[in-house]
Specification:
By secondary structure, this protein is an alpha+beta fold. It folds into three domains: about 100 residues, no CATH class; about 120 residues, no CATH class; about 130 residues, no CATH class. It is about 35% helix and about 20% strand. Strands 1-8-7-4-3-9-2 form a seven-stranded antiparallel beta sheet, with helices on both faces. A four-stranded antiparallel beta sheet has the order 12-10-11-15. β7 and β8 form a beta hairpin. α2 crosses α3, α3 runs antiparallel to α5 and α7 runs antiparallel to α11. The protein starts with 5 loop residues before the first helix and ends with a strand.
Length: about 400
């Protein structure tokens, strides 16, 4: 008995323990609410509930499946009724044809796979009920992340990087490393390692460390590194995300046989919105277009993407031999900490959250372009406190 690793034994036994209720709600109720809040954030950003369809973004389709289930289960409707400020539970847009209570796990899996299709693992197509069951106890021990607003832009950035190919999702090996700044997919959710404590020697002789793990649904947990590694390895859908790939360069000097791929443009809004007016010299929209900038902004006053106001072009940078969508995602990654958090209503009264506006001085944008040219942009991020580009802490 003395030879047993008591810490490890405690961990294994904890897998079978029933988590205690906190804050008057069961862990299951907390998970239901957290999942519903993700759908609500989607609605706030896009102005409509998530829809099914092969032409939709993968995360929208997953949210649509989740909303189907929440609408179908009476237990969920009762728990969520006080939080349903957008009337999502009573909506009729994507009500499932078959009551969810009558669906088996295999049928639910088939539905999920049909929604996701046969696309790459970056779209989370290998989620399995058994993996969800294995992760359920670990999820139950999570707490609400009090400073999640600090990490929300990072998760959005990583989602964009997965879609554009800047990051890739790879199978998680049994001995794969886990460290600060790493991203993973566990139980169908994005996972971020925000902090790692001092490395210590466990009783079994292996090195370990305590982690602060942030999840994309706004929760966090305090796990041992070995515990997270085991969970990722056991999860059939467990994946590690690669670091951003090398940045494609564009030419600064033009040659006769260069092929233009597009233009980076920096805009300033002429909106009368009080906040925009007060910070007009700092608020900039950064985008990439393959056509003429003038054509792109011709109807700015009618487009919520441009804050429903005219804009002026502050700077442009020509591109050659570069993937425009990938470059745009790089800018979003760099300036994510300074993304403008502003919601406006479109002409139909639907709330819209424009994503390409940032509180960044123009000279810093110039520096970012130079860093892309010379390839030093890797691991750089904008620090709003010092108003300069710094190396990412991870």
């Amino acid at each position: 008995m003395s030879e047993l690793d008591l810490d490890q034994l405690s961990e294994e036994l904890a897998d079978f323990a029933q988590p205690a209720k906190t804050g008057g709600r069961s862990p299951r109720e907390e998970r239901i609410i957290a999942g519903f809040e993700e759908i609500q954030r989607f609605v706030e950003q896009h102005g409509h509930p998530p829809h099914h369809g092969e032409d939709k973004d993968i995360f929208e389709r997953l949210y649509a499946v989740r909303l189907d289930r929440l609408r179908a289960l009476e237990e969920c409707r009762i728990v969520l009724a006080p939080f349903d400020r957008q009337g999502l539970l009573s909506g009729a847009e994507i009500v499932p044809a078959e009551p969810a209570e009558s669906m088996t796990d295999d049928e639910m899996l088939a539905e999920l796979e049909n929604v996701v299709g046969t696309s790459a693992i970056t779209e989370l197509r290998h989620v399995r009920p058994r993996a969800e069951i294995r992760a359920s106890d670990e999820i139950a021990n999570r707490e609400k992340c009090a400073d999640f607003d600090r990490y929300r832009p990072l998760f959005k950035q990583v989602e964009d990087e997965l879609k554009t190919g800047i990051r890739q999702a790879r199978p998680f090996g049994k001995d794969a490393s886990v460290g600060t700044g790493n991203f993973f997919i566990l139980g169908g959710q994005l996972v971020y390692i925000a902090e790692m404590g001092d490395v210590f020697r466990a009783p079994n002789g292996e090195s370990d460390a305590r982690l602060r793990v942030i999840y994309s649904n706004g929760t966090e947990s305090n796990l041992l590194r070995r515990s997270l590694q085991r969970a990722l390895y056991k999860d059939e859908a467990g994946r590690r995300l690669t670091e951003p790939t090398d940045v494609p360069l564009f030419s600064g000097a033009w040659e006769e046989d260069d092929i233009e791929s597009g233009t980076i443009y920096v805009l300033r809004s002429l909106s009368s919105n009080p906040f925009v007016a007060e910070h007009r010299d700092l608020i900039h929209k950064i985008g990439v277009t393959g056509g003429k900038v003038e054509t792109r902004i011709a109807n700015a006053a009618l487009d919520p993407t441009y804050l429903l106001a005219d804009v002026e072009v502050i700077a442009t940078y020509k591109l050659a031999r570069v993937k425009r969508t990938k470059l745009e995602a790089i800018f979003h990654r760099i300036f994510a900490p300074a993304q403008l958090n502003l919601t406006i209503n479109d002409r139909f009264g639907h709330p819209v959250h424009p994503r390409e506006w940032f509180l960044v001085p123009l000279h810093v944008i110039d520096e970012a372009v130079d860093a892309i040219r010379d390839g030093s942009i890797t691991n750089l991020v904008y620090d709003p406190a010092s108003a300069q580009l710094v190396r990412h802490p991870c």
